[in-house]
Design goal:
By secondary structure, this protein is mainly alpha-helical. The protein has one domain. It has four helices and no strands. Helix 1 runs antiparallel to helix 3, helix 2 runs antiparallel to helix 4 and helix 3 crosses helix 4. It is globular. 18% of the residues are buried.
């Protein structure tokens, strides 16, 4: 499985793009729009993270230019500081950026 398809599917499934245009960066908004546009007639492919991962992987194989476009947008989104990535096993994971003030985990 292509790591890019897994990362994008994970971000979308986690709700990162729920408020696209409000609190997310321009690159992530563009990426979400592009994916929705590409899969407009195949909404069943977007119902779960696993389905989206497979659908993206297949689409990236079929259309390398689309993969490249998504890769560029994903990299831009990461540089805007709005993409999180976690690999491995953990009971709890906290990812944060620009915390101002106190932070306590109990």
């Amino acid at each position: 499985m292509d790591p890019l398809s897994l990362a994008i599917a994970g971000a979308l499934a986690a709700g990162v793009a729920t408020g696209v245009g409000e609190s997310t960066g321009a690159a992530l908004s563009a990426l979400v729009w592009r994916i929705r546009e590409r899969f407009a007639n195949r909404s069943n492919d977007l119902e779960s993270q696993a389905q989206l991962s497979v659908a993206l992987d297949e689409e990236f194989t079929r259309d390398p230019a689309f993969r490249q476009e998504c890769q560029v947008l994903w990299n831009q989104a990461a540089s805007e500081g709005i993409a999180n990535s976690f690999h491995g096993q953990a009971e709890n994971v906290v990812q944060a950026r620009d915390i101002h003030g106190g932070f306590t985990i109990q």
